[in-house]
Design brief:
alpha/beta; binds adenosine monophosphate; ATP-binding
Length: about 400
């Protein structure tokens, strides 16, 4: 296994750029795919979000782009606007940090097409990142000259190459030259995806992931459904019911962290707000107090989701669900350290139940639905009943995700 970017023949300016981003050691998907990608091989890579897959294809793309030419040379297809924008952010960051003047533009639907056409014409970006419908539209309108494209990446291939959507992707690829490189990255490589992808490729290198996210089997996963406005009260009742010895409550927004802490401390005084603004020293002190039991509950952003190894955390509560799928794994992994058992409880709206389903699929875990009744956390079947009675779901706040 190559364990440095130098071993992978990555240019020194890119290595320096990565260093500025705190990236020094390639992740497994990067270690396996950068060399064959630099050799212009087609690739099918199994990689989940958070595995470093974006840089696994961006680093070789940065090598191959001839920045002296003002023409489109790379195209990245993504299933959602959000992902396209995240990828473009990573391109801009790497270009800035490495000093390699690669330019990019996101091409997503719902943005005025005429403005997009003008920007494409004026800027002539090296890489476009976007959703398939709009890209195909612009190719058909002859506003994207696909024949200069050297590399195509299909991100989240299991989604984009799903038989229901694959035709658009195939239509886009057909407009590019035969000798272009095609890389497909996918969280799981189903036979179907493999078949569709290999049809489009020349002898692809298939990279299987050996570090699939796994979850500690000693964690019990639960969810409690409520209206968005009732989330805090539901959390409070759950805490009264389960009486955690030591717990972390995850909240996404700094202000909500403060508010939740203040409200919980109204009832008892053993919560601490661990928000992103807190100084390193205060953070250290708080973790020590938490370790020794002086603080019983940390109300925290994702800053404590990784690496915090405190024994005796009996419960993790997700007052907000994490913004990224894999973050659930890191957050809930704070409980059940060593041989201990622990419980992870999501407080969700009915609209968010699809995210619980995603956790179940991605991490092969089973969640049980609970409700608080008479001060006890007991089994509930509300969500499954509600599915059969759609009218019920209308009483739930479904405007936002959290
Ligand atoms: P991705 O799987 O592409 O969504 O990447 C997830 C996050 O991992 C991004 O924020 C990257 O900046 C970061 N990342 C990518 N490669 C590495 C690496 N080799 N070491 C540390 N972090 C990385």
């Amino acid at each position: 296994m190559n364990n440095s970017f130098t071993d992978l023949n990555v240019n020194s300016n890119i290595i320096e750029g990565l260093l500025k981003q705190g990236i020094t050691v390639p992740t497994p998907i990067q270690a396996s795919s950068i060399l064959p990608a630099l050799e212009n091989k087609d690739i099918i890579g199994e990689a989940f979000t958070g595995s470093g897959k974006t840089l696994a294809y961006l680093i070789p793309m940065f090598h191959k782009i001839d920045t002296s030419k003002r023409e489109m040379q790379g195209m990245i297809l993504a299933p959602t606007h959000e992902l396209a924008i995240q990828i473009e952010d990573q391109i801009k960051l790497l270009a800035e940090n490495s000093g390699v003047p690669v330019t990019s533009m996101s091409i997503i639907g719902e943005v005025n097409i005429n403005n997009q056409i003008k920007k494409l014409k004026d800027n002539k970006p090296h890489i476009i990142v976007g959703t398939t419908g709009r890209i195909l539209d612009l190719i058909k309108k002859k506003k994207i000259a696909a024949h200069t494209i050297k590399t195509i990446v299909i991100d989240e291939g299991d989604n984009l190459l799903d038989p229901k959507r694959a035709d658009t992707v195939k239509d886009i690829i057909k407009t590019t030259m035969k000798d272009r490189q095609l890389m497909v990255f996918s969280a799981s490589i189903k036979l179907e995806t493999l078949a569709t992808a290999t049809d489009l490729m020349k002898e692809p290198v298939v990279i299987k992931s050996e570090d699939k996210p796994t979850i500690n089997p000693n964690i019990e996963h639960m969810f409690v459904v409520c209206d968005r406005r009732d989330k805090f009260e539901t959390l409070r009742k759950i805490i009264v019911a389960v009486k955690p010895e030591k717990a972390i409550i995850f909240v996404n927004d700094n202000e909500d962290i403060e508010l939740t802490t203040v409200k919980l401390n109204y009832h008892s005084k053993d919560c601490f707000a661990m928000n992103g603004k807190i100084s390193k020293e205060d953070r250290k002190l708080a973790i020590e107090s938490f370790r020794h039991g002086k603080i019983k509950i940390l109300v925290s952003s994702d800053i404590t989701a990784r690496g915090l190894d405190v024994e005796g955390i009996t419960h993790v509560f997700h007052l907000d669900l994490p913004l990224k799928l894999n973050e659930y794994l890191h957050r809930s992994g704070r409980t059940a350290r060593g041989d201990a058992h622990g419980t992870s409880i999501c407080i969700t709206t009915i609209k968010q139940l699809n995210i619980i389903k995603q956790y179940e699929r991605a991490f092969t875990v089973k969640f049980t639905e609970k409700k608080v009744f008479g001060g006890i956390l007991e089994d509930s079947h509300y969500a499954s009943d509600a599915k059969q009675d759609k009218a019920k779901s209308k009483s739930y706040d479904s405007k936002t995700n959290n």
